[in-house]
Amino acid sequence: MGMRLRFSSISLMLLLFVLGVVLIVQVVSNDVKHNYADALSKSILFFEGQRSGRLPSSQRMKWRKDSALHDGNDIGMDLSGGYYDAGDNVKFNFPMAFTTTILSWSIIEFGKSMGSDYVHATEAVKWATDYLLKSTSIQNKVVVQVGDPWDDHNCWQRPEDMDTKRTAFAVTDKNPGSEVAGEIAAALASSSIVFKKFDPAYSQNLLQRAIQVFTFADKYRGFFNDSLGKWVCPFYCDWSGYQDELIWAAAWLYKATNQQTYWNYVVKNIPLLNDKYSGKIGEFGWDDKHAGIHVLIANDLLSKNSSGNNALAADIVVCTILPESPTKSSGIKYSPGGLLFKDMGSNMQNPTALSFLLLTYSRYLIRANKVVQCGDKTVSPQRLIEFAKGQVDYILGNNPMKMSYMVGFGNKYPKRIHHRGSSLPSIDQHPKHLGCHDGSPYFKSSKPNMNELTGAVVGGPLKDDTYPDIRSEFAQSEPTTYINAPLVGLLAYFNSPC
């Protein structure tokens, strides 16, 4: 009897232990589950906080007001609208165009998973394309920037109060800039696909302008670094050359028109990238389009059942990125917590952009019933999806800091972001004009930002997974449009996997 009681006690203790473990596992499991729909909505809302120009009545981020309404007056053009790229008040068309292209690609690939946010996503694209149409309205002239970056970066001022120079800078047939013109052509071509079904007239307008701008970029070749010098450098210099943007634009024009001439252009010129040997095949962002080109054309190559070198290039992109790959690039590192890192500022642009590519490529592989071979390791499409999810989940809170790097998402997120409008009192709170240096006390303050830039994803943690929530540490605390753009597509997929 005593032995039975003892056994029963032990059994009870074991049962309670097992139940406890299950409970703990369940709690941990709950911690790692994110509300992707909420994150998606906020990632798109962020773009409303970056708007320049006269804001519409539908504006949801109410603390932002009209700004820069007279942009372009110095050159006799209406250049109001568009986006501020980050925490400053300059309109840099190179990263803005890339942001537009990736937002469009996100909608093309994952729009069916966006639900009610589909409308807001297309509105985000149109806010950019309306401005890009203005910027390219004069033949053989492409506006590439509005605002004096040196003056702007010397001030801490609300966009609504700007009294810095709003100089407009352009490239022309005499002073070319093929990389920025090529990216604008890609943005217009990709967005024409987005609007094709529900606004065909606008879509056609975008496409015709894309063709015009691509022709200009290809005919009058040159670096905008050479044409505009200190006005674009060191802010958004072209480091990778313009060949990648020309091929990128031609690939998007092929997607938009299905005209063989653009496909022939891609096939003829893609060997000039020489990226398999230059180390650029794993690069993708506002400057480098190398990896993006290979993934973008992979679906066409796979559908044509091609076995040429280009058909394998997207596989090499994968093998360059994955941490377990024996041929991973030495330029790609991972933090102890698993976040992808490159030696550059605003690192979070890398895990979002490269994860977007791998997720997109996984869909193409699934359709073609293919896998990737990295040395002796076989990589399935599911592994690419898992990789992308791991990076997204890190951003949303599955990291050593247990914090979300998206403002307004979760219980713990950056509060002192490097962003002028967010850190300063809004017009509603402080109607009086704030001059160039009137915002300095707010910049230096250790208090949280006064206005929540909901959905903004900051530059991210340091390589050891720690995050200094300090306004002056802009490489970590500044959000950018080109961090968020690929994240929109990623979140749409994980909101509703298909």
From TrEMBL:
Enzyme class: hydrolase
Catalytic activity: Endohydrolysis of (1->4)-beta-D-glucosidic linkages in cellulose, lichenin and cereal beta-D-glucans
Signal peptide annotation: 1-20
Gene3D superfamilies listed in its UniProt record: 1.50.10.10
Enzyme Commission number(s) from the entry: 3.2.1.4
Annotated Glycoside hydrolase family domain residues: 36-491
Key words, A-Z: Carbohydrate metabolism, Cellulose degradation, Glycosidase, Hydrolase, Polysaccharide degradation, Signal
Listed InterPro entries: 6-hairpin_glycosidase_sf, 6hp_glycosidase-like_sf, Glyco_hydro_9, Glyco_hydro_9_Asp/Glu_AS, Glyco_hydro_9_His_AS
GO molecular function: cellulase activity
Active site annotation, chain numbering: 418, 469, 478
Protein name: Endoglucanase
Species assigned in the record: Thalictrum thalictroides
